[in-house]
Amino acid sequence: MKELRLMKGNEAMAEAAIRAGFDGYFGYPITPQSEVMEHLQKERPAIRTGMVVLQAESEVASINMVYGGAASGKNVLTSSSSPGISLMQEGISYIAAAELPCLIINVVRGGPGLGDIQAAQSDYFQAVKGGGHGDYRLIVLAPSSVQECSDFVKLALELANKYNNPAMLLSDGAIGQMMEKVELFPQQPRWTLEEIRKKKPWATNGRLFNQERHIVTSLHLIPEKLEAHNNHLQAKYKEIEKNEVRYEEIKCDDAEYIIVAYGLASRTAQKTLQLARAEGIKLGLIRPITLFPFPKIPISTYAEKVKGFLTLEMSAGQMVEDVRLAVNGRVPVEFYGRTGGMLPAPDEVLAVVKNVFKI
Amino acid sequence: MNIEMIKPENLVYTKTKLMTDNALSYCPGCGHGTAHRIIMEVIDEMGIQEDTIGIAPVGCSVLAYEFMNIDMQEASHGRAPALATAVKRLWPDKYVFSYQGDGDLAAIGTAETIHACNRGENIVMIFINNGIYGMTGGQMAPTTLPNMKTATSPYGRDVKEMGHPLKMTELIAQLPGTYYVTRQAVHKPANVRKTKKAIRKAFELSKENVGVCFIEIVSNCNSGWKMRPNEANIWMEDNMFPFFPLGDIKVDGQLITK
Ligand SMILES: Cc1ncc(C[n+]2csc(CCOP(=O)(O)OP(=O)(O)O)c2C)c(N)n1
Ligand code: SF4
Ligand SMILES: [Mg+2]
């Protein structure tokens, strides 16, 4: 039997975290994502599944609680919004270096600085290119609906555990706050001690008498060793790029022009598509679902067929750099963006399409 | 040496198996190694290695996990109490301890320290106070004494300009989340015995989930203080102990009134 509910994106992510079998959540309130912890606390997850929920003293503390929890073999997550995610960056770098699976949710708001509390996509660079120090990558999933908010929490945990890598859900203030129908997935059991020992044999949860101790660290003082570790990480990221690219394409088969947009902006782009098609303009849409790994190959393939791309973002132009790398100069890659919580309107985008491609 | 003497029946002391064979990275004379050893002895003697997780800091003891032969996590600078909080909450039946220096615990990690203590996390916190940043080459620490010379207070700590040394242990003892708070040392055998007793008490209490058990160890940093080890110990007795007096500060959740 389907379990349908009308929920905010933030609530759907919280509910999904309980249902996906997470063991712990550590967070600090910030708009526009405070409903995540609020929903968790209201739901009494300690009673429902035994999940631990703790309000930390800061995002610095919450990401380091995630570090400790993940290092002990538990499935843990945190959520925040842009300024809080900035505070977490040192911790995220440590987690990526120590190869700890966990989930970080960023419900992006307008920046830079304190910015505002409206929806934005201006944390793409931070999420996809690193954010913290050193050569590392997060697995980044971008939901565009409340349904995907729920589904991707579960998917992100699976991917994080598959690759021993932190995963990030890059949502935004609008998807976090808007209410939509969502089909909830059934409750998954939390891992038993035996499962933890089997699936995370490296975890630090007590050295058995007949075993070697486990250490979780990101320190490699000998340059040769650190380089070898970095090479290992890079090989893993290549593997992720090979296996885990996810994207959606709409009406690209006969398209002469393609919009590339993710998350909320992709919904505007879908509407633009309808308007364009009604006028006989052959417009298609590629929606990256994984921002890392980025769908380079499909974009590159369409670069052979179409006359141009328009990247649509709620930023001053961040993902457009990855689209340009994939297209590699073969056709024009134009950009249109609104910032600060301003949302592009479908007819506004259509006018841009006509203008830049001289249709 | 008379090899004949090395027989089990003559053995009065042995290296605990919970210290690895790795050579300690500490300067000769430094208190860190002694502190490590007695913590490991306590865990060994209590037979709780299977149930103990340690959190190492950033500081000279960043490599504590190379020496402590148990499951260990290496935290970022100052955040060990956050890691310990999560591990203990997710594994409530385990023993979890953090091990931190004064820069780690009382400067960059002040918020994590105070809030872990205030929440009454059921963890053991070990605080090695040597009044200086040992690892980075002897800069001023939050616990550097007034007028003490360091690399970043080369003419002595001017408290008007650089602030006062922070008595973190007295501060956290005020919080209802702490249960047992004591200040000890490891520079003399009698102190080592007392400190070991305190550590044992802290681990035993931690099973009863009564809140934070906090042990400050006032320790030397002969390299950072630019003294010979013995001089450093004498200087510590003459200068550090008057400012950071040894003894219990809070027992059974009650502040000791002197
Ligand atoms: C975020 C961050 N800031 C600064 C440092 C540099 N750093 C490493 S250890 C240390 C001070 C450690 O002093 P303390 O905690 O007193 O330990 P000790 O070496 O004296 O035992 C500093 C500032 C760092 N590693 N990370
Ligand atoms: S620098 Fe100081 S604290 Fe560090 S090992 Fe040497 S004596 Fe010990
Ligand atoms: Mg120090």
Task: Write up what this structure looks like.
Chain A is an alpha/beta fold and 359 residues long. Chain A is built from 15 helices and 15 strands. Chain A has helices spanning 9-19, 35-42, 45-48, 59-71, 82-87, 89-97, 124-129, 146-163, 173-177, 193-199, 223-243, 263-278, 296-302, 319-327, 346-356, and strands at residues 3-8, 24-27, 52-55, 76-80, 102-108, 139-141, 166-172, 179-184, 215-216, 247-250, 257-260, 283-288, 290-292, 308-313, 333-337. In chain A, β6 (139-141), α8 (146-163) and β7 form a beta-alpha-beta unit. Chain A is globular and about 75 Å long. With 258 residues, chain B is of the alpha/beta class. Chain B has one domain (26-255): Rossmann fold (3-Layer(aba) Sandwich), CATH 3.40.50.970. Chain B has helices at 32-46, 64-67, 80-90, 102-108, 110-119, 159-162, 168-173, 189-207, 222-225, 229-243, and strands at residues 52-56, 71-74, 95-101, 124-129, 132-133, 139-140, 178-185, 212-218, 247-251, 254-255. In chain B, strands 2-1-3-4-8-7-9-10 form an eight-stranded mixed beta sheet, with helices on both faces. In chain B, a hairpin with a 5-residue loop joins β5 and β6 (139-140). The mean pLDDT of chain B is 96. Classes of the chains: A alpha/beta (359), B alpha/beta (258). The interface between A and B is medium-sized, with 37 and 33 residues. β9 (215-216) of chain A pairs parallel with β2 of chain B, so a sheet runs across the interface. The structure holds thiamine diphosphate, iron/sulfur cluster and magnesium ion. Iron/sulfur cluster binds at residues 26-27, 30, 32, 60, 130, 134-135, 221-224 of chain B.
